[in-house]
Amino acid sequence: MRISPLQKWSIVIFASLLGFILFILPVIASSIYSFQKPGGKGYSFSSYTWLLHQDGFLASMGTSLKLAILAGILNISLMVPSMVYLNLNGQRFKSLFDFICILPLVIPVVSLAIGAQNAMPSLLQNSQYELVFFFVIIGLPFTYRTLDTALQAISLKTLVEASRSLGASWIRTIIRVIVPAIRGGITGALFLTFALSIGEYTITSLLHWETFPTWTVIASQQNILGAIALSVFSFVSAIALLSIIALFSKKGARQVEVEQ
Amino acid sequence: MGVVKAQLRVRSDSRSSGVLPLLPFFTFTGFFLIWPVLAVTLKSFRGNNSEWTLDNFRPIIHNGPYFHSFIVSIKLALITASIGSIVGAFFAFVIVTYVRGRFKNVLDSISAVFANSGGVPLAFMFIAAFGSNGLATKFIRFLGYDIYAGHFTIFSFTGVVFVYTFFQAPLMILVFQPAISGMRKEWREASTNLGASVLTYWRRVGIPILLPPFIGAFFLLFTGGFSAYATARALTSGTVSIVPIVIGALVDGNTQASQANLGASLAVGMIVVALVVMIGYVWAQKRTAKWRQS
Lengths: 260, 294
Known about the structure:
- The complex is a heterodimer of chains A (260) and B (294).
- With 260 residues, chain A is mostly helical.
- Chain A is 82% helix and 0% strand.
- Chain A has helices spanning 5-34, 46-52, 55-89, 94-106, 109-119, 122-125, 130-153, 156-165, 170-181, 183-199, 202-206, 212-222, 224-248, 250-259.
- Chain A is globular and about 70 Å long.
- Chain B is mostly helical and 294 residues long.
- Chain B has 13 helices and no strands.
- In chain B, α2 (23-44) packs across α13 (257-292) and α4 (65-98) packs across α10.
- At the A-B interface, α1, α3, α4, α5 and α7 of A face α1, α2, α4, α5 and α6 of B.
């Protein structure tokens, strides 16, 4: 009943080919396209240099980076202590906590945005930092899953009891014992929140703020080639960055093996 | 003395199970998640003079542009979730079965990028690749098939379907992998020992076990496709009238109060559809958990 090597290889080759056509080809095609000169003949960096000369480019990029970093930090500092407590002795609240964490996947982001428009105090509505809070909400389901996997993989109770009986305070226990033990999960959650926040468009545009993605859409109306170059750049650099991290994180590899 | 104190502390740790340490979490999500959802729901039942009314829901139920936008959205979600879940499940199977170690991590990361940070960049990349002068279009034309021979354009409903699949399938790869790697070797061995062929194994063991997680993942993809806004907005600049785009147009325009209320009722309509789908998801999750217990 074992599959023969020939069948095995034909499955793998078929999958690789399909994956190449569906996912890699569009990326390559748009990358080449982004280097085309506006007239269509010849190749140059002109679309990329055009970007650098735009007023909004660096400003919106800066805004997005700032908001995304803040969202990542806020997310971790909110979720790590909560989930440690939940796993230790907050069992009573587990189902409610689970429910809330999956809710952002259920509630369409558009609906959340309309709600935010109506519900947030004007003090918050007048500041772009309101986006940070909603980026955290959108990242919740993903952070939850990443941190939960990491916490399941360590013997949390033993670690905490050891640390506490040696006289460490709760804060010290979390910072010096638990955080290092689930470092892989925390990095993963941080990057996920960061990536989601950098690319977030729906809430940002419905609440009328200008970040990198909303600026890209506005810029595309002037220069579609510029918008394409921008998209290729952000997409390819995200893939490159995450692939490098995946390639060099031994921790991640080990965790995956444990899961299986 | 110190030891006794510390032991007491450990004991008191395990006894205290109050809500206090979770208060920051519940306050935060209460204010930034639950309260906006409540607010939009309340608003959808208010009339122009803030009296209670069901009028805002009338345009959604009656046959018309708003009703139609829900049909288009549901159709879009159904089609893209179907294609995405089947293609993604195949890739998940191949990755779990044949790919190991670091390369698997890289594939997972790439899937995560495709699935999550799609949005706006995805739309423009597809315009570059599959627009009427796109390089992929030219390449396919070179192979002898002109995708623009019929009614296809990347800016139409079909185009949106095409682009959505590009993030739905990788999402499926991520979501469905645990289900496949949870299949025990012993099940396969047991069924072989009982004389089952590969086909019988899949028909009697594999597919029945994988069906609930597959349906669960399908529902997840459905909600994703149903609520996605960025890609369609950037790709079509609002010409394909799915519900999120209609809401966006209502919000962006200089809306009168009545239209703001209509936006709220459309938003609530979306929540209702998503909730119904999520009930299916929870059901599928429960069925999945049944197999994981032993």
